[in-house]
Design goal:
With 324 residues, the chain is mostly helical. It has 10 helices and 8 strands. The chain is globular and about 50 Å long.
Length: 324
């Protein structure tokens, strides 16, 4: 229920912070580190807090403060900029771009935004479940319609030539690997599009490195904050979506990539590289959680001796045992 601490740390407009101080629980940061304009707070808090709240509800069944919590989340959700015609999240124009989600925070997009729209869709579906839990059928129906509008219009960012979704309708109108896989994983796109995305991922091995991590786009982003292109380096946060999408067409290929990632001693720890050359990377963050989730969700692909285990390394740290 830590989500409630983020509710309490909101700003005067109802935006939630990206992070809070561990000792005081006061808001620590509202903006992306790459967003020097500070036009709008990043959407991480706004659109991920409902997902976290639903996770808490699913685990606990606790509705004691849920109605009041939802009122706060509802205000925050209204701060998300939208395209009034197709309901997709609007990344903005004229240098006043909105950062829809921190994992795309270096990408300076304009117009309709794929990643932001998908994260908003997740938040809206979480709000449906939470409002249903407190018996507010009117608000549940409203958010259900909101999510349906995004799903109905997400194909405006589909490129039939590439067989992939593009990141935005304006700047950075190019293949978004992670956004495409996310749409496929959550079923926002059609089965035909999921198959097309899977075939693209299988047919483009240059997206992956020897540790199984994947680029966000096959080419450098057209525009990034401060001229950076690091957001197209190899990451781990989209691995679950990518592996699951590949598995839908070629389970053996998905298993192969999972092995590469799990056998990588760097990627199987939570690490944030800050100029540490010993790890073979700098300025990047890797987490084992997405690929581990794929392995544990698809145990039938792995025999019992190949499943990773979690070894306590002194609270709160853990290390994953590598697959052979």
């Amino acid at each position: 229920n830590i989500y409630r601490k983020f509710l309490a740390a909101k700003d005067v407009n109802g935006n939630f912070p990206v992070c809070i101080h561990s000792d005081t629980a006061l808001a620590n940061l509202f903006y992306s580190g790459n967003d020097t304009v500070h036009y709008r707070p990043t959407g991480d808090g706004t659109m991920l807090i409902p997902v976290l709240a639903k996770l808490y509800y699913d685990m606990s069944g606790d509705t004691t403060t849920l109605a009041a919590d939802l009122a706060v989340m509802d205000v925050s959700m209204q701060t998300v900029p939208r395209n009034g015609t197709n309901h997709l999240v609007d990344a903005g124009t004229g240098g006043k771009n909105w950062i829809p989600y921190g994992s795309w925070d270096g990408v300076q997009k304009t117009g309709d935004d794929l990643g932001g729209s998908l994260v908003y869709w997740r938040a809206a579906t979480a709000m449906v479940a939470l409002y249903t839990a407190v018996g507010n059928s009117s608000k549940a129906a409203s958010y259900a319609a909101d999510a349906a509008n995004i799903a109905a219009n997400i194909d405006t960012l589909w490129n039939g030539t590439d067989g992939m979704y593009h990141a935005a309708s304006g700047t950075c109108n190019q293949i978004d690997v992670y956004g495409s896989a996310m749409a496929a994983y959550y079923g926002v796109c059609s089965r035909a599009h999921k198959t097309a995305i899977a075939n693209y991922l299988i047919a483009t091995p240059t997206l992956f490195n020897i540790q199984g991590y994947c680029k966000m786009s096959p080419t450098n982003w057209a525009a990034c904050w401060n001229g950076n292109t690091f957001m197209n380096n190899l990451w781990s946060w989209g691995q679950l979506w990518i592996l699951d999408t590949i598995k839908s067409v070629n389970p053996a290929r998905a298993k192969q990539i999972a092995y590469l990632a799990i056998n990588n001693p760097v990627g199987m720890q939570y690490e944030f590289y800050v100029g540490d050359s010993s790890s073979g990377a700098s300025g990047n963050i890797l987490s084992p959680a997405p690929v581990l989730k794929f392995v544990l969700d698809n145990r039938e692909l792995f025999d019992s001796t190949q499943l990773p285990t979690i070894e306590p390394q002194g609270s709160p740290w853990v290390r994953l045992t590598h697959l052979p």
